[in-house]
Design goal:
Residues 1-219 form the FAD-binding PCMH-type domain. Keywords: Oxidoreductase. The protein is an alpha+beta fold and 325 residues long. Among the domains are: 5-50, Uridine Diphospho-n-acetylenolpyruvylglucosamine Reductase, domain 2; 219-323, Enolase-like, domain 1. It is built from 13 helices and 12 strands. The chain has helices at residues 12-18, 32-37, 72-76, 79-84, 86-93, 98-103, 106-110, 117-120, 161-168, 186-189, 270-276, 283-290, 306-323, and strands at residues 5-7, 23-26, 45-48, 57-59, 63-67, 172-177, 180-185, 208-215, 223-228, 239-248, 251-260, 267-268. Strands 4-5-8-6-7 form a 5-stranded antiparallel sheet. It has a 4-stranded antiparallel sheet with strand order 9-10-11-12. Strand 2 (23-26), helix 2 and strand 3 form a beta-alpha-beta unit. Helix 5 runs antiparallel to helix 9, helix 11 (270-276) runs antiparallel to helix 12 (283-290) and helix 12 runs antiparallel to helix 13. The longest helix has 18 residues, at 306-323.
Length: 325
């Protein structure tokens, strides 16, 4: 680990005022510290933001606002989250381990870096880590890599389970910088790799996530998160699906669908949502709609199984959600 300056700002205004392009914010540290030890990330300055007043979970006129420093465990066990947004609680409970969920923050989870082995190995090229150096994953070991949103420059998969559930629900994030505050869709926060995979998100230098807002959506209480992985715990997704459905009698009126383990960012499946709307809530409808999940897939040598796994995971999620009625 390289030397760095360390400070503990006492307010949000102070934190964003002191931040510059070479600064990293430290919350739970469950990603940052690991990457600093590997020298994948080498910030010249680290600001410990754990003293900042960003730990509330509050119902508002917009929905449910969650401070960015709230720990994953506290969100997953919160009464309002479990009752009104079960897909979020389930996504969190499927993440990492109990110890890490106790430590990791919501904001940090949303901004965690990819688990691509080439990215984390500083002895090999990586366009995300060193722009223009190449992407060995394209022709190398790529079983865990993305099949949606990829480019010739990067095929790294986005790692967050929580982000998949939040994107499905159209969550927004509140951001604070030296120049003021703004609110954007979480979906728009994440950037596709294109020719600039080192630019992972739309945050400006020194900009801080202060809160996540789950929109008021009464039928989000009928939602589910299903994760398929190589082992039952402490493992990243091969495929996952976040689904929320509004029904009238036996007909699907509206659906929200996003998948993880498949894309370079959390992937919303608008075509699947459209194919479900107005259809009977039956396995046949789910099978037909899930075929649209394959639109635009770009499998690699070692992950050609992923598109079909995604389709099956989606059908499974819809069927399991049906059983909870």
């Amino acid at each position: 680990m390289r030397e760095f300056q360390f400070a503990r700002p006492g307010s949000v205004a102070e934190a964003v005022r002191e931040a510059d392009p070479g600064t990293a914010f430290l919350a739970g540290g469950t990603t940052l510290v690991d990457l600093m030890k590997l020298e994948v990330m080498t910030p010249g300055r680290v600001l410990d933001i754990n003293r900042l007043p960003l730990r509330a979970i509050e119902a508002t006129g917009e929905g449910l606002e969650i401070g960015s420093l709230v720990r994953m465990r506290d969100v997953a066990t919160h009464t309002l989250v479990r009752r009104d947004y079960p897909v979020v609680a389930q996504a969190l409970e499927a993440s990492a381990s109990g110890q890490l969920r106790t430590m990791a923050s919501i904001g940090g989870n949303l901004l965690q870096r990819t688990r691509c082995g080439y990215f984390r190995d500083v002895s090999v090229p990586c366009n995300k880590r060193r722009p223009g150096s190449g992407c060995p994953a394209v022709g190398g070991e790529n079983r865990m890599h993305a099949v949606l949103g990829t480019s010739d420059s990067c095929v790294a998969t986005h790692p967050s389970d929580l982000a998949v559930a939040l994107v499905a629900l159209d969550a927004t994030v509140r951001l604070r910088s030296r120049t003021g505050e703004r609110t954007i869709s979480l979906r728009d926060l994440y950037l596709l790799p294109g020719d600039t995979p080192h630019r992972e998100h739309d945050l400006q230098p020194g900009e801080l996530i202060t809160a996540v807002v789950l929109p008021r959506l009464p039928w989000a209480s009928h939602s589910i998160y299903v994760k398929v992985r190589d082992r039952q715990s402490y493992e990243f997704a091969l495929a996952s699906a976040a689904v929320a459905v509004r029904r009238e009698r036996d007909t699907i009126v509206e659906a929200r669908v996003a998948v993880g383990g498949m894309g370079t960012r959390p992937w919303r499946l608008a075509a699947v949502e459209a194919a479900l709307a107005g259809r009977p809530a039956t396995e046949a409808s789910y099978e037909a709609a899930s075929a649209r999940a394959l639109d635009g897939v770009r499998p690699l040598r070692h992950n050609a199984f992923k598109p079909e796994l995604m389709r099956r995971t989606l059908v499974r999620a819809l069927l399991e959600l049906e059983r909870t009625r």
